[in-house]
Amino acid sequence: MLDVGVVHERADAARNRLKVLAAAESLFEEHGVANVTMDDIAAEAGVGKGTLYRRFVDKGGLAVALLDELERELQQRILRGAPPLGPGAPAADRLAAFVSAYLRFLDRQLDLVLMSETATPGARLRTGAHEFWRQHCVLLLQETDAPAPDISAEVLLAALSAEQVRHWLREDQLSVPKITKAMSGLARGLAGSGR
Amino acid sequence: MLDVGVVHERADAARNRLKVLAAAESLFEEHGVANVTMDDIAAEAGVGKGTLYRRFVDKGGLAVALLDELERELQQRILRGAPPLGPGAPAADRLAAFVSAYLRFLDRQLDLVLMSETATPGARLRTGAHEFWRQHCVLLLQETDAPAPDISAEVLLAALSAEQVRHWLREDQLSVPKITKAMSGLARGLAGSGR
DNA sequence: GACGTTAACGGACTGCAGTCCGTTTCGTCA
DNA sequence: TGACGAAACGGACTGCAGTCCGTTAACGTC
User: Fold this and answer.
1) pLDDT digit string (tens) for A14-44?
2) pLDDT one-digit tens code per residue, B45-54
3) In this complex, is the C-beta atom of B155 within 8 Å of any C-beta atom belonging to chain A?
4) pLDDT tier at B193 (50, 70, 90 boundaries)?
5) Which long-range contacts (CB under 8 A, 24 or more apart) does B59-63 make?
6) Given CB atoms, is B186 within the 8 Å cutoff of chain A?
C-alpha cells in the first residue's frame, strides 16, 4: 500500500513522506480528523500542497496511509496468529472472531477509518484493506458451503462500515460489546445457513 | 419530508421551490447528477444561491426532495398494496419482496440516491426514507422472532446502500436479477434463522 | 389601500479541495 | 566533478460548497 522502495524512492521524497505523516498524525490527534485541512497539514509538515497531493491523492489516501500499519498488524494476526482469529478454528468461529477483532480496531480508529471510507463515494470498496477483509470472509464462507459467499462477505463488511458503526455507537448509544455480540451472531448465521 | 403547508408557505417561497426542483431535475437529467453544481441550479432556476440553501440544506437535500415522490409511491405499495410487498403475506416473503422492489427503485434512481446518501458522512442514516425502510424491516423481522431485528434491519439496508449496489452493478458487473436473488435469499435467511 | 412586521431573497464573500506548471533537487554517467 | 535528464517540489491559481447580511417582497392589520 505504501509502495516503499518500489523502483527506488528518492531521498527527498522519503523525507517528505515521513514529515507529512508525522504532521498529519499530530494534527489529527490534536484537533480531530474532521477539523484539519490539507493546508494545515502541508504547513505543519513544511511542504507544498502539491507534494501532499502527489503522494497521497486526497485526505482519504492520507488516512489510508496512517491506518496502514495498524491494519497490517490485524492482517498478520488473521494470517498467522492464534485461533480462533488465526488459522485452525472452524470457519464460523473464525468469522465471528474476525468481526469481533475488526470492531475493536474500528472503535479505536473510527474517525480515521471514516475519513478513509468517505473521502469520495465508493472509497471504502476500493481500499486494499477492504479487499483483504473481503477475501478473508469469502474464503471462510466458502468453507461452510454458505450460499453466495461473495455477496454475504460484502453484506457483512457493509454493516461494519465506519458510517454504520459510528451511527450505532453515537446515535443509537449501543456499546461495542453489544454490537459485537449481535454482529458476530449474525456472521455465524451467514456461515451456518448454508449447511 | 417536504413539509408542504406547515404553518403556511409563502407564495414566493412555493414558486421558487418549484422552479428549483424543475431546474435541478432537468440539469441532472441532461448532465448527470455529479456534473451539476449548485450555482448551475441556481442560475437555471433564476434564483439566488441563498434561496437554494435556505430550502434544501445541501445538494443531498435537493436529491432527497426529488426522490420524495417516488419513495412515497413505494411506501404506499408497502403499506396498502397487494401482497407479498403489501400486508397479508408471511413476513419472510414480505421482506424478500421489499428487497426486490427496493433494488428496482435503486436501479432506476441510482445517481440521485447516491447523492442523497453521500452528500455528507452518515447522510444515509438520517433521511426520513431510511427510517421508514428500517422500521418496516424491523417489524417484519420481529414477526419472525429473528434475534436482534434492529441490527439485522440495519445490516440489510447497509448492504442496499447506493454505494454498495453501484459497486456490484458497475465494478463487479452483476445484474439486477442476480443481486435481487442473492439479497432476497439473504433476507429470508435473516428472517428464518430465528425460528 | 397604506403601513409595519417578518419571512424570504440574492449575490458577494470566505474557505477548502484539488490542479498546474515553472523551479529545484536528486541521482547517474561520462 | 560537472553536467544532464528525470523526478519531485511548492505555491499561486481555479472552482465549488456553503455562509452572511443588506435588500426586497409577501401578508396581516387598521
Assistant:
1) 999 999 999 999 999 999 999 999 999 999 9
2) 999 999 999 9
3) yes
4) low
5) B59/B115, B59/B119, B60/B115, B60/B116, B60/B117, B60/B118, B60/B119, B60/B120, B60/B123, B61/B116, B61/B119, B62/B20, B62/B21, B62/B24, B63/B33, B63/B112, B63/B113, B63/B115, B63/B116, B63/B119
6) yes
User: From CA A183, how far away is CA B152, in angstroms rounded?
Assistant: 9
**How far apart are the C-alpha atoms of B163 and B154, rounded to whole Å?**
15
Average pLDDT in chain A: 94
Burial letters for B29-45: b for 16+ Cβ neighbours within 10 Å, e otherwise?
A: eeeebeebeeeebbebb
Burial class (CB within 10 angstroms; exposed 0-12, middle 13-18, buried 19+) of A12: exposed
Residues 6+ apart with CB under 8 A from B160: B99, B102, B103, B106, B183
Spell out the residues 6+ positions from residue A122 whose beta carbon is closer than 8 angstroms to its own: B163, B166, B167
Confidence of residue B23 (pLDDT cuts 50, 70, 90): very high
* Distance, CA of A16 to C1' of C25, in Å: 13
Q: How far is the CA of B10 from the C1' of C8 (A)?
A: 8
Cα(A121)–Cα(B98) distance, integer angstroms: 25
Q: How far apart are CA A134 and CA A137, in angstroms?
A: 5
Do residues A66 and A24 make contact, with C-beta atoms less than 8 angstroms apart? yes
Give me the residue from B122, B151, B189 closest to A183, CB to CB: B151
Q: What percent of chain A has pLDDT over 70?
A: 95
Task: Please tell me the pTM assigned to this model.
Answer: 0.94
Placement of cell 523525507 in the chain: A15
Q: Which residues contact B17 (CB under 8 A, 6 or more apart)?
A: B9, B55
Which stretches within A81-127 are classed as H helix?
91-108, 110-118
The closest alpha carbon to A14, from A3, A29, A27, A26, belongs to A3
